[in-house]
Amino acid sequence: MQKRYWMLTALSLLLTACSHTEVALDSKIDLPQQYQQTAAAQGNQQISHWWQQWRDPQLSALIEQALRQNLELAIAQSRLQEARAISSLAGAELAPQVGASGSVGGQRLEIDNNLSSAAQQVVGNNDLSAKGHAIVGGVVASWEPDIFGQKRSDADAAKYAEMGAQERVYGTQMLVASEIGDNYLRAQTVLQQRQILNRSLQTLQQLQRYLKGRFAAGQVTAYELNEIAAKIEALQAQQTGLQAQFDTYQRSIAVLIGQVPQGFKLNAKQMQQANLLQHLPQPPQGQQPGSLLTQRPDIRANAAAVQAYAAKLASAKADLLPRFDIQFLWQTGRIDLGGDLPPLKGWGGLASIGVQLPIFTAGRIAANIQAADARLQTALLQYDQSILQALAEVDSSYQAQFALDQQIRQLNSAVQKATKQAQDTQKLFQYGDKTLDVALQTRLTALDYQQNLLNARLAAGQNLLNLYKAIGGGWQAENTF
């Protein structure tokens, strides 16, 4: 009966040592059943490759290239490899260590007999010589049984740290894709803004010529001339900075795709043909709050951090318990001295079992446990904070997207009406019912509405990118890109 008891105890200790350290993520956040602002969403639910839904081949090619060549992503991958190596190293501590040793040696001795004749008559007159060799080999083994799971906890902590590094790779993928999309939208906005400014400048210059004629006739004052001249100079100043803005976005994209900025060019013709700003997809449907826990890399990374700190806490607590070690040494060898002496040979072994138990540490172990527990509590709080922040970001992004869509519809209607009014006013001018300045002013008003519409479309595109990030779109598991 007693023997059975000790066997069960040993088995229990062995199972404890082999078990992984994992804690339940007892988040204090009660996830809602659904979002408040997603009911009107009608877009594609699959957003891991959201750029494929934007129907711009150049944008898709740039993002795919960045996911292969971006240096920030390469840095994150390198750090992941480091974390994997550290995890493997921690896991290796669970296994025994075995080594071998050996040595081979030889000797030769020659001594001339320089003794006197009288001495040689006593001991002989032969020279002295000797030779020999020795061969020794052995095996050394050591093992520290993980009876109370400290090494397993250390290995688990390293494994969860590796998982956190993997999530940072996914997060970098998501950010790189979003940054390329943002710079691409800004560059396309500049191209369209240039067209609007050119038409506005032409209209203002035509209005300036008309006012100069009326000024010569004494029908307007210098105030009107100065006002129109100031507007022309303001537009020309905007035009001056447009190329610099476009080139800045272009260089940013070059860096993101891992290419030298000098010489890199976006295909402006393809951008104009795709006309991305006027064909933005609808926000994705079917999103649920519970999906955030598996879709957002930052939340997943925080969850891995909680598990890592839990494993470190378990390791710190194991310092209170005994530690055992087993040492084994076996050696054999042969020594041959030559001459008439027989060779010496033999073998030997040594085994030892040791135990180490902390008795007095001046509170070091307790303080380390308290620090590890505090780090775990901090990680849990950060996990909860990331969930709250994500919930707010998703609903805010959806609400902003629908508001911008409504704004775009209203501005588009205003542009159509203003354009028709400009056409009607031009006809009235041709029939003599309106003066040319009125016709030109209505045309400028329509162009101002077009600029407002362009700004709203850019804001909608940028917010859609933020929505993808809030949901956790734009990445896939390793080796799937």
Structural class: alpha+beta
Helical content (DSSP H or I, runs of 4+)? 55-70%
In DSSP terms (H or I, runs of 4 or more residues), the helix count works out at: 11
The H-and-E topology, N to C, reads as: HHHEHEHHHHHEEHH
Total number of strands: 4
In terms of per-residue confidence, which ranges show pLDDT below 50 for 5 or more consecutive residues? 5-18
What does this structure look like?
- This protein has helices at 2-18, 57-69, 71-92, 117-123, 150-216, 222-256, 268-274, 292-295, 297-318, 364-430, 436-471; strands spanning 97-111, 128-143, 323-336, 344-356.
- A hairpin with a 7-residue loop joins strand 3 (323-336) and strand 4.
- It has a single domain, classed as Outer membrane efflux proteins (OEP) (Up-down Bundle).
- By secondary structure, the chain is α+β, with helices and mostly antiparallel strands.
- The longest helix is centred in the middle third of the chain and has 67 residues, at 150-216.
- Strands 1-2-3-4 form a four-stranded antiparallel beta sheet, with no helix packed on it.
- The chain starts with a helix and ends in a 10-residue tail after the last helix.
Question: Which descriptors apply to this entry?
Answer:
481 residues; alpha+beta; Outer membrane efflux proteins (OEP); four-stranded antiparallel beta sheet; 11 helices; 4 strands; 62% helix; elongated
Short description:
The protein has 481 residues and is an alpha+beta fold.
How is the secondary structure organized here?
Elements: H1 2-18, H2 57-69, H3 71-92, E1 97-111, H4 117-123, E2 128-143, H5 150-216, H6 222-256, H7 268-274, H8 292-295, H9 297-318, E3 323-336, E4 344-356, H10 364-430, H11 436-471
Antiparallel strand pairs: 1-2, 2-3, 3-4
Helix pairs in contact: 2-5, 3-5, 5-6, 5-9, 5-11, 9-10, 10-11
